[in-house]
Amino acid sequence: MSLNSNVRKRILETLATTHSFSTVTGLSRCICCDNHFHKRPFASSSWSYKNPNSGPRSAPQIRKRCVERDDFDKTKHDFGGLRGKGLEEFRILGSDCNFDNRGGEKCNLDGLNDFSESEDEEEEVGENEEDKDDELRALDSFDKNRKRSEVSRIIEVDEGELRHPLVREISRLIDLRSAWTPNHESELKRLLRSLKPSQVCAVLKAQPDERLALKFFYWADRQWRYKHDPIVYYAMLKVLSKTKLCQGAKRVLRLMMRRKIELYPEDFGCVMVSFSRAGHLRKALQILTVMQRAGVELDISICNTAINVLVEGEKLEKALRFLVRMELVGIEPNVVSYNCLIKGYCERKRVEDAIKLIEEMPLKGCFPDKISYYTVMGFLCKEKRIDELRGLMEKMLAETKLRPDQVTYNTIIHMLCKYNHAEEALGFLHEAEEKGFPIDKVGHTAIIDCFCQEGKLDKAKELVSEMFSKGCNPDVVTYTAILNGFCRAGEVDQAKKLLQQMYKNGCKPNCVSYTALLNGLCHSGKSLEAREMMNMSEGWWTPNAVTYSVIMHGFRREGKFSEACDMITEMIGKGFFPSPVEINLLIQSLCQKGKTDQAKKLMEECLKKGCAVNVVNFTTVIHGFCQNDDLDSALSVLDDIYLNNKHPDEVTYTVIIDALARKSRIDEAIEMTKKMLHSGLLPTPVTYRSLIHHFCQKGRVEELLKLLEKMLQRQNFGTVYNQVIEKLCYFGNTDEAYKLLGKVLRTASRIDVNTCHILMKGFLKNGNSVGSYRVASRMFNRNMIPDLKLCEEVSKKLIVDKKLDEADKLMLRLVERGHVSPECKQAG
Question: Quick check: pTM over 0.90?
Answer without folding.
Answer: no
